[in-house]
Amino acid sequence: MPLIGIVARKKDIKDIKRKLGENYELIELTNESIKNLKNIKFDEIIYNKDINLTEEEYKFMREIINKTKYILINSDVKIKIPENILIKIITFGFNSKSTIMISSVKENYIIISVQREIEKINGDIIENQEKKIEIEQNKKSSIYNEIINFLINEL
Length: 155
Description:
The protein is α/β, with parallel strands linked by helices and about 160 residues long.
């Protein structure tokens, strides 16, 4: 079962967990949990909001990130990530320089544009493309959560 670390609001984490189901293990990364998780190897780490860390906590976070396969970053939020990380970074958001750019938002769906090729964990390539992502009608879900779910399932 893939292990995913996430920095996000509690309601977003709950929403993402609900959509992913039992196939993934999501662990919230907080100031308190980072020291205890420094020896855990995550498949992915998601930054959907900033986290204010002390210098010591940034050191622990850098250790965690450097053992991870991917880091997914919401490019529409100002986020301070540790420097000198040596892994694949995938950005997402409305920013035109994002790896995954939100190009259209409709009531029932969003259209994203994959701006650069992304190598999946199994070595396959996600090519440059536009993709339509359906939005659940009766659920309060953020567009960013929809993209996070797409990325987790695709990688």
